[in-house]
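Summary for the steering committee. The consortium agreed at its last meeting that each partner would contribute one worked example illustrating the joint modelling workflow. Our contribution is presented below. We chose a case with several input lines so that the handling of multiple components could be demonstrated. No manual editing was applied between input and output; the record is shown as generated.
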Amino acid sequence: GAGVSQSPSNKVTEKGKDVELRCDPISGHTALYWYRQSLGQGLEFLIYFQGNSAPDKSGLPSDRFSAERTGGSVSTLTIQRTQQEDSAVYLCASSFSGFSDNSPLHFGNGTRLTVT
Amino acid sequence: AQSVTQLDSHVSVSEGTPVLLRCNYSSSYSPSLFWYVQHPNKGLQLLLKYTSAATLVKGINGFEAEFKKSETSFHLTKPSAHMSDAAEYFCVVILNRDDKIIFGKGTRLHILP
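What follows is the complete predicted structure of the assembly.
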C-alpha cells in the first residue's frame, strides 16, 4: 500500500512568511512523528501524536511552530514568521500504535524548506 | 545507488551481555553516519554520530560505534545490555553532497531478563 506521504516535497519561502507542511500517514497508523534535519545536524525530534492528541511536544523549537492532527490521520506542521534558521528537511513518520513488535516506524520522503 | 542495510530486524540478548546491531551502507559520496534510538511513545533520540573525525564514536548510554570504511560498516555496540535498552534502533546515513537522508529499516532490540 501507499507509504507516508509528505507535501510539498520542496518549499522556498521568504523570511517572515508562514508555511504549512503536510503529512499523510499510512492508513490506520495512530502514531505520527515530526522531525527536522538541519544542514550538518542530526535528526531533531519536534512532536509526537497518538491519535489526535500530542503527548510529547517537547521538541518544538519555539512558539512559531505548531502542529495539529485531525481525524487521527493527516497532520500539518505550521511555521509562522519563518526565519532562515528554519531551513531544513522536515520529516514525518508514522507507526501503527507507537510501539509494538509489529509496528515499525515508516518515514516519508520529507519536505525540504528553504527560507530566503 | 545509495542505501543503508540493517542486517537484523530483531535482536535478542540477555541483560548484562554484549549488544551488536549491524549496519552497512553503500554510498558514492562521503557520508555522515548516525544511530538513533526510538523508545516506546517517544521520538527518535540521537545516540551517536560519525562525521569524519575519529572512527570510533562514543555515544550516550554506553553505546559506541566504529566506522570501517573498508567494510562500509557502522555497527553499534554496547558491552553490557540493560533492560532500558529495549527499543528500536535506526542507522541513518546523510550524504554530505546533498544532505539526502537515508534510513535503515530499524532493528528491534529485545532484552531478556
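Chain B has a mean pLDDT of 86. Residues 3-112 of chain B form a domain with the Immunoglobulin-like fold (CATH 2.60.40.10).
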